[in-house]
Amino acid sequence: MKRLRALLGGAAAAALATAGIAMASPAAFGSAATSHAGSHAASQAAAGASASAALSNRWYAAAPYLMPLDNDPPSATAIMDATGLKAFQLAFILAPNGGGCSPTWGGTAPVSSDTSVASTISAIRAKGGDVSVSIGGYGGTKLGQACSDAASTAAAYQQVITKYQLHAIDFDLEEPEYENSAAVAHEIGAAKILQQNNPGLYVSVTTAGTSAGTGWFGQQMLNEAKSQGFTPNNFSIMPFDGGFSGAASQTSALTAFNKLLQTTFGWSEATAYAHEGFSGMNGRSDSGEMFYQADFQTVLDYATSHGMDRFTFWSLNRDRQCSPADNNGRTSGTCSSVPQASWDFAKYSVKFAGATPPSDPPTDPPTDPGDPGDPGTCSAAAWSATAVYTGGDEVSYGGHDWKAKWWTQNEKPGTTGEWGVWQDEGAC
After folding, report:
1. Cβ distance 144 to 186 under 8 Å?
2. What pLDDT does residue 282 have?
3. Cβ–Cβ contacts within 10 Å for residue 423, how many?
4. Sequence-separated contacts (24+) of 16-23 with Cβ below 8 Å
5. What is the CATH number of domain 44-353?
6. Is the pLDDT of residue 416 over 60?
7. DSSP letters for 304-316
8. Do domains 44-353 and 367-428 have the same CATH topology?
9. What CATH number has the domain spanning 367-428?
10. What global pTM score does this model have?
11. What amino acid positions are annotated as catalytic residues?
12. Of 24-28, 133-137, 169-173, which range is least confident?
């Protein structure tokens, strides 16, 4: 499952340099150990001093992904103020690009000498929030590939947990690592060791989703977990970039994945849902699938009604509107390519955690459409793929009102750009 990291190309290194993060070979870091010792100790102390009490597991389960160093990182504290979000899934920890079994951010910024991400974490915690850290992702060399066994892989991840005083961690097992059975065994073994050595640590395992729940390699990963006697808080699938179309296809995949969990681990349906998670993609996916606010609401309703353990998405960097809104039919790492207000999708995570986003209208008394300060609700009928519309007809879709310019059928509002049939009339 492509996570839009490749869109940056060489820009990531430039961004890290701009942020003042040193990049050097392992040898260079070794030769400069004495000069770095003071700043390293200071950053460790700062991270420890900023550590907060753990949030409830529901918040870690609701934490959306955020790249703190790439893809035009938004202000985490601004998102907290706007939405009530308390937890963030920071991505991604990889092996060094030059080789070795030590943790880095994105393959280039060593965790051992990091101050930039530590500063972001401190700011989040100062406002009563917390973070989980995600390892792996799409592309790059993973520590499970670079380290010699599960114990050394776990030791590398323990450095991350200790440095940032983590209460939660996510194993994002994707291409090409999850096609490597030895690497997957290292990752699952490391997860089990970390779970044992860090009591109360919230552990999620995220992998590719298909219409059958997950594919051959995903099932191989589940089998590995079973053979090692490892049970995380949840196994999450990513139902996007696999021929999906809207929420119905995603909930169908979640139902199928539930059956795989039952079969693999001998769980009841309810137990399987209690160990199942959803990791979506907001807006336009890498393969051109479209997921709107209404789709997120449908999946959220499914997750909560079935007692699922996790609801997250990729990513907060993308949780803002492009210009133009559809980004001329392209997928971006920094905006969603669908009409939206900033942080629309983050509010679904807040709802999953059990909180009410501050901008949500009250449910009692009902909204007053005559009050210009009242956001109200969509009054037009919901768009239907089977209905025929003519010029002037109005529908609601994705939290916006739309007006047809001419005859149309089965053309989704917001997907056809400047010359599309639907005119965006604004948020409901």
Report:
1. yes
2. 98
3. 12
4. 16/69, 16/106, 16/108, 16/109, 19/69, 19/116, 20/116, 21/69, 21/108, 21/109, 21/113, 21/114, 21/115, 21/116, 22/113, 23/108, 23/109
5. 3.20.20.80
6. no
7. HHTT-SEEEEE-G
8. no
9. 2.10.10.20
10. 0.78
11. 174
12. 24-28
